[in-house]
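Budget justification aside, the reviewers requested a transparent look at the raw inputs and outputs of the sequence design task funded under Objective 1. We therefore reproduce one unedited record. The lines immediately below are the structure tokens for a 280-residue chain.
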């Protein structure tokens, strides 16, 4: 890590996005790209409803109109912006937490603990996918908790606004509301950006993930009718590998705070908050 100037009035440096974040962002894009099948499984019925209720003068010919393409593009833009904003919220929460703990002089160990716990959680999520993840299982558990009421209200808000918003720019809002729905694809990403403690990084990381999901969801809403359960299960195996990779990197970075060095691939990876060694 780059040492802070001795005369700097700030004892702790908040992490920022740089060229070393490129590897992480590429992984997030791949998660979104592979996770498109998951998105179709969870949100496909709603996307199909949007497609059916869009007004078009060429519905009976079966041809895809520019208007329909625009509406689906706006919907996916709304989803991506929503993911990015929520990622920034989680990154901000991490930064605020680290800043508060830093005042107590225990930033390094605390951040290490967060990295280990979050990394372990992401690893478990990845392993569940390799072990035969059943789509909607975790989402159903989350929706059944107190937090689930937020998701239930979001789903209701989407359902009741389809007819009013689907045929105008309001479809952006329909896409944005999807960020509040329970999604196993997003939970590991939220944990990761929280552990990094950077709102800018959270914005870019989740925005990149959202962009990765666009091709599958866009094609599903326009020309593809369905994705088989077997195809989605195959994709879950790929997601499991990616989540295990992210979780391991975060776990190793957390253990570094305690002086425990785990092997890491020789690649540029995103560095979180500067620890006590940066104060020398």
């Amino acid at each position: 890590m780059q040492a802070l100037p001795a005369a700097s009035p700030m004892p702790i440096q908040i992490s920022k996005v740089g060229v070393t974040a490129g590897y992480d962002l590429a992984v997030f894009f791949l998660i979104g790209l592979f996770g498109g099948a998951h998105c179709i499984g969870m949100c496909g019925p709603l996307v199909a409803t949007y497609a059916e209720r869009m007004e078009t003068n060429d519905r009976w010919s079966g041809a895809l109109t520019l208007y329909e393409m625009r509406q689906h593009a706006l919907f996916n833009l709304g989803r991506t912006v929503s993911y990015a904003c929520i990622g920034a919220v989680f990154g901000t929460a991490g930064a605020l937490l680290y800043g508060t703990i830093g005042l107590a002089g225990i930033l390094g160990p605390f951040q290490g603990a967060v990295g280990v716990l979050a990394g372990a959680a992401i690893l478990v999520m990845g392993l569940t996918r390799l072990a035969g993840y059943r789509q909607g299982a975790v989402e159903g558990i989350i929706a059944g908790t107190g937090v689930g009421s937020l998701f239930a209200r979001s789903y209701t808000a989407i359902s009741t606004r389809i007819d009013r918003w689907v045929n105008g720019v309001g479809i952006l809002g329909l896409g944005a509301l999807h960020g509040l729905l329970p999604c196993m694809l997003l939970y590991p990403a939220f944990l990761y950006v929280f552990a990094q403690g950077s709102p800018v990084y959270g914005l870019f990381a989740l925005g990149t993930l959202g962009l990765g999901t666009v091709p599958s969801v866009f094609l599903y809403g326009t020309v593809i009718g369905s994705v088989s359960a077997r195809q989605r299960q195959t994709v879950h195996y790929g997601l499991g590998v990616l989540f295990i990779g992210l979780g391991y990197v975060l776990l190793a970075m957390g253990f570094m705070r305690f002086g425990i060095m785990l092997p890491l691939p020789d690649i540029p990876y995103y560095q979180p908050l500067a620890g006590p060694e940066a104060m020398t």
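Confidence is low (pLDDT under 50) at residues 1-20, 272-280. Residues 66-103 form the longest helix (38 residues). Computational costs for records of this kind are itemized in the attached budget.
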